[in-house]
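User: Hey, quick favor. My workstation is busy. Could you predict this chain's structure for me?
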Amino acid sequence: MHCIPAVWTKLAAGARGLGAQLRLCLRTSVAAVLTYVLSQALHLPLPLWAVLTAVIVTQMSIGKSLKATVDYMEGTLGGAVYSGIVGALFPHPGSIMTPLTLAIAVAPLALLAATSPRFAAAPFTAVMVLLVPSMTHVSPLYSAFYRVVEVGLGCVVALGVSFLLLPERAHSLVLQSAARMLKLMGRVLPELLVGLKEKQDLTKIARIQDSIGAAFIELNSTAAEAKRERLPYLYVEPDPQPLVDTLLRLRHDLIMIGRASVTSFPAAFLERLGEPIAEIGATAAEYLRGNGAAIEARRRAAPLVRFETALDAYTAAFAASRRDGITRALSAEAAEQIFAFGFAVEQLHQNFKDLQRCTEQIARLHEVRAPANA
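Assistant: No problem, here it is.
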């Protein structure tokens, strides 16, 4: 019996972690049921098509639902108009001409869908328009008309549910994706710097860089959804693009740092600068993770002073090494590697300042809106 509270706590934590997914589940279910009820009330000939549309266009965020709705309607309209004309010109439902008519209708629409994903719904719309008449004994034009009506009903219901029932704004998902990416970069940055002291596993480094790239692709895609949903609202969230651009530059910084640390620094150089480099890595990782947590919680940015102190210490140690003639004994390749690392760290510093501004803007907006929502 004593384990029941612990199990319940774990289940509750898991439910909170799946909050967005559970809300999508609820919205999709409500949209499907409501669309079916309205289809029956309107006596639509094929409620299945309307219900499927509602399920398909109900997406994780409002912005993504808007994109899915526009694309699905474009594909349906294009497919319905073209296949309706083909069916009217070759009126042989259920006859030996049906395969030829189907090929004439589907082939160009399949090519269009392959060229532009927005028209992915066009080919199977044509199939429905041409084959349903043979089962229901109606004309292709009648079938095309009702396919558009059914899809339109499904889209309207899905969008209404997405806006009114536990709406999920894409802007919130952008901040969640940005926070995850920052935490990931903070976690892997020390691993990239290992190569400055010992031999690196290049396969591992490639996996690290690929994981950061995948995180940015997710962020960029969600930001595009956030831009689409700004228009329907009377007030808008700030443009997510500055934050996206900053994280892209931070990704490039980690790529440069990773390339600079493919081979270890000379022993004489590490003896003087090994500790400042380690401190730069530790404080930079801490700053990335701290800003990830700050963006996630909509609070003020993590302080930059520890990283700047570590950078000043590295700069001072490097200047002392130059005065002592250590850099003059370096090979051309080693000197290039060291200066590349220094440049990457300086770029990291500049981009940290941009990240701080973005995080502060998010926190200020949240502070302004918090009293209004209280």
